[in-house]
Design goal:
Helix content: 40-55%
Largest sheet: 13 strands, mixed
Low-confidence stretches: none
Radius of gyration: 25 Å
Length: about 450
Amino acid sequence: MKFNLKRKDLYVVLSIFRLINMSFNDAFLVRTRDSSDKARQYLQGLLLNRGRGNCSRFARKVRNCSSQALQNFITDSPWNERIVIGKIQREVTRLIGDPVEGSIHIDETGFPKQGNCSVGVQRQYCGRLGKVDNCQVAVVLGYSHGTQRILIDGQLYLPEDWAKSNKQRNKCKVPKDVRFKTKAQIGFEMILNAQKNGVPFAWIGMDCFYGEQPWLRNKLDEEGLIFIADIPRDTRVWLSQPKTGIPVRNGKRGRNPTRERVLDEGSAPIEVQKIKDQIDPAEWKRVPARETERKELKMDIACLRVYPVENKLPGKELWLIIRKEVGQDTFKYQLTNAVLDTDIRKLAKMSCSRYWIERAIEDAKGVGSLEDYEARSWRSWHHHIAMVLLAMLAALMMQIELGTKAEMLTLQDVKEILEVIMPKRDISDREILEIIKAKHRSRLSARESHH
């Protein structure tokens, strides 16, 4: 283990923090004002925050800062979050981008909410809770290269009822050009946008929700992009391509058939979970998949060519990957359009790479205060997400810089360093009393509103 960190090395993080603020300053310039100073303060609040956070809590820790100014920066200031995200993606490319080993992944995360005032909130599946509940849902795009990972985009899913309701749209200031899009459509657009911004990647990973949608797999294939998609265990495939065509009409009655069908009556598709029991033991390979915090993860994997069922017809021939971690009993199933001669070790590495976006989401929650916001409008929600991504970029830059002297340094370690060395605001006795008084007024208002 390498650990050569000195006290003076810790202050490198402050230089990096200043550098990233300077390089992003122009993204916060608008015609009437310069919001870069408030961006720096909000960024600092995100990185210094512990536990539940909001603009009021951020302002208590950041020097020369007020809650009202931060709230105005997030809610009302007209800076464009897409410009910020574009710059983040280009910086991530510079830091850890790799066209051979890099990968991007689409996923989603939920934000439990009380009431119905926040944009896009309704009863829907919340991954964090593992059930249907009142929440907002974000579709996120992550990038990984080896063990380094980071979120590079995030957009709010606006449910169809919201998209159709002028009352709700006006209340939360949803722009007129925003229309209903499925989560998969949002994810696909984010992938194309990252590609347009020059983000280099060798494949795209996705979980079952996205992987079981043939149209998405086909669109990625049409774009010449390699995907590896988790699929449900009851997904049906053909092991050999059945004969298809338009059947001949039986007899003289009725119309002539016009739809293409499977003509082999004895050729029925099979669920992927049933295929694993038919595989010859010699076909299974034990290979290394990825590094973990403690050791190298190994898996048993079998790969075979199949034709997925799409609208009752065979789709394009793909790889079916069946795998389980050594020592575990749970099998997982995936489809990929990787080329025919792809090495099994490469397929294994691709198969396990989605793990890193899950880690990136947890990083953003624990280090970048992803879940901590006061954002009821469309603009404020997307402003907050862009600032979280920027905070994670700053943390990643610090981790890479200090990692040359402490190879096991984590993003959480970086956050703890920042909490100690970053200048913080001193709060007077009078300010503490005002904070408590404001809390009591807020609680009283909430109680009276409830009654």
